[in-house]
Amino acid sequence: MASNTTSPGSRWTVPVNLSPSRIESFVSCPLSFRFASIEKLPDPPTEATTKGSLVHRALELFFAYPPDERTPACLDRSVDAAIIEFHDRPEFIDLHLDTDAALRLEHDARRLAANYLQLENPAEVNAIGLELWMEAPVGEVTLRGIIDRLDLTNDGELVVTDYKTGRAPSPQWERKSLSGVHFYAFMCESVLGQRPAAVRLMYLRSGETITATPTPQSIRFMTTRTKAVWSAIRTACERDDFRPKKSALCRF
């Protein structure tokens, strides 16, 4: 499927594929969205984003092992393997870290991964999807995303789990923080024909888990919101009107 389309008289091409993070990017700062998603300007890696990717990869490798082999030692080996992989990745190389800084990043990533073991028993997890790519049409746009982990419970229910390596939100921001995993719930229902029984955010730094139950109403809201945001993006492209929103999420 094409990644964008051009409206007559429009300076900018209109994306026809969106991810949950890109939707939030446009809502937070339309100008930042244009730079990243339409103009495709380079987005240099940071230590925080690279560390997050490393931890995600380590947990992906960890859950590829049979349940009875998912021990702390196994997790440590998975982190080791992820670190070796990342030494050859541009996102790590482009940080230009000296030896001490690289060791600090790797140590922090190892600590974050180890914190996972305080949140649940990995031997009891039936992971049926790891870094699972999904996409589903929503009107004129295709919603795309990668689910960190999709589990199947003993009762035959689906559970979406998303790992977070940053700070957990304060209580008043918890609902907003769950918007991404609610999008994944919509995609699961669209693609797999089954609405997840739960969506979870696991904050590895603080050891907190935020859980919500998708409902028919929340699924409809995700559909409505996706269409509304895409319509606003199309209008912004047609009018060349990507206004910055001054906030911590928009530096422009």
Description:
With 252 residues, the protein is of the alpha/beta class. It has a domain at 47-122. It is built from nine helices and eight strands. The chain has helices spanning 20-28, 30-38, 47-63, 72-86, 90-93, 99-115, 174-177, 179-192, 216-239; strands at 4-6, 13-15, 17-18, 127-138, 141-152, 158-164, 198-203, 208-212. The strands form two sheets. Strands 3, 4, 5, 6, 7 and 8 form a six-stranded mixed sheet that branches. A hairpin with a 4-residue loop joins strand 7 (198-203) and strand 8. Helix 3 (47-63) packs across helix 4. The protein is globular and about 55 Å long. The model has no long low-confidence stretch (mean pLDDT 92).
Key terms for this structure?
alpha/beta, 9 helices, 252 residues, 8 strands, six-stranded mixed β-sheet
Short description:
The chain has helices spanning 20-28, 30-38, 47-63, 72-86, 90-93, 99-115, 174-177, 179-192, 216-239, and strands at 4-6, 13-15, 17-18, 127-138, 141-152, 158-164, 198-203, 208-212. It is of the alpha/beta class.
